[in-house]
Design a protein that fits this description.
Layout: H1 2-20, H2 27-36, H3 38-58, E1 63-70, H4 83-86, H5 95-106, H6 109-117, E2 119-124, E3 127-132, H7 147-156, E4 158-163, E5 168-175, H8 178-235, H9 242-277, E6 284-287, H10 303-330, H11 334-351, H12 355-361
Antiparallel strand pairs: 1-5, 1-6, 2-3, 4-5
Length: about 375
């Protein structure tokens, strides 16, 4: 009796498998497909999870350091009514303009190229390593051959946070080593300060040269006006005519105006000489970069899990494709039968590459 029961059970399972091909899609149908191909799903999940784990093991640690600077100008704003401002020698600029300028300068390719070509000394697992920045990112040979790649890497790993109201800029540098992050941040600030000093010195030098030439002209004009006033008084020792009085007043006013102009230029010339001679830091460091103690949390830790999920999704797609093909094979349609015939012909063509040419030359039958 038990044998008959077993046979009946086997036959019922077979009938269920046959009816499963015609079952409408439902929750139980979905679960049945997953359970039927559970082995394939497990293999794909494990394989993709291992791939994600390998990628995670290959990912580098990330160490971020921060440095804060203030770029607001400490010099008083120029008088918009003054002669020098009217001539455009000292353009008015506030904290917002300085912040915008330095923000672009900090990420400019020429500056980043200089940063990458500097020498660095870093403590690694293999010991102390010295060399240009390219050495710590896997590039070998002449560093100048990889300037474009290093510029792109530094651009992606430098983050700025700026305030136009206060003139503060916060710079975040991300590298694979704590020592390297600190040294890169320091080199960036040093290069920016050097460039800013040279820029201010060039502006002060150009301003001094212009004012110096204008000062000589003003001095000559003042001397000419004074000589004219003196000569008028010598020629007209006593004058009671209104015309002579007006002429004398005009000459004195001309002397007074040229005297004021000469005095203003002389003061501006002294300020320009002082500014040209100064070599003070152009930026104020609010927070010096420190060596990071521990790496930043990385999103790469989720790669094994994401790989397993991707494997599961891929397995589900493959499982339903295989199930659909099995349903079609159990109840073949004309399209499936035609597909089977074409597939059989394609396999024959692969085995005999000359077969398609012979078939194309075969005359068509009269039917």
């Amino acid at each position: 009796m038990s044998g008959v029961h077993d046979v009946g059970g086997v036959s019922s399972v077979r009938r269920y498998d046959e009816s499963l091909a015609h079952e409408e899609t439902s929750l139980f149908g979905f679960m049945n497909v997953l359970l039927k191909y559970r082995g394939m799903l497990a293999v794909l999940m494990i394989a993709c999870g291992i791939f994600g784990a390998v990628k995670y093991s290959q990912s580098k640690a990330s160490y971020v350091t921060r440095i804060g600077i203030n770029v607001a100008s400490n010099e008083p704003a120029p008088d918009p009514t003054g002669l020098v401002a009217q001539l455009g020698l000292v353009p008015a600029s506030g904290s917002a303009q300085e912040v915008a300028f330095f923000s672009e300068l900090l990420r400019s390719p020429p500056l980043l190229r200089d940063v990458s070509n500097r020498q660095y000394t870093v403590n690694t697992k293999r010991g102390t390593v010295s060399g240009p920045l390219t050495r710590f990112y896997g590039f070998s040979g002449n560093p100048q051959l990889h300037e474009k790649e290093m510029t792109d890497i530094l651009t992606d790993n430098i983050t700025l946070s700026a305030s136009g109201r206060t003139g503060n800029i916060w710079l975040f540098v991300d590298t694979p080593f704590p020592d390297l992050s600190q040294q890169v941040a320091l080199n960036i600030i040093r290069l920016v300060d050097d460039y800013s000093r040279a820029r201010k010195h060039a502006q002060a030098s150009a301003e001094r040269e212009f004012i110096q030439g204008r000062l000589a002209e003003s001095k000559q004009e003042l001397s000419t006006a004074e000589d004219a006033a003196v000569q008028f008084r010598v020629d007209n020792r006593e004058f009671s005519s209104p015309t002579l009085s007006l002429q004398d007043g005009r000459l004195l006013r001309d002397v007074s105006m040229k005297q004021q102009l000469y005095t203003s230029l002389l003061q501006s010339y002294d300020r320009a000489r002082i500014a040209e001679a100064k070599n003070l830091p152009s930026i104020t460091i609010l927070e010096a970069p420190e060596k990071p103690i521990k790496p930043e949390p990385s999103s790469a830790i989720a790669l094994p899990l994401l790989g397993a999920i991707a494997g599961l999704l891929l397995g589900i797609v493959v499982a339903f494709i295989r199930e659909r093909m099995a349903e079609t094979a159990a109840s073949p349609t004309p399209a499936f039968e035609y597909y089977t015939e074409l597939k059989r012909d394609a396999v024959r063509d692969l085995k005999n590459p000359l077969r398609p040419f012979g078939r194309s030359r075969k005359p068509a039958s009269d039917g």
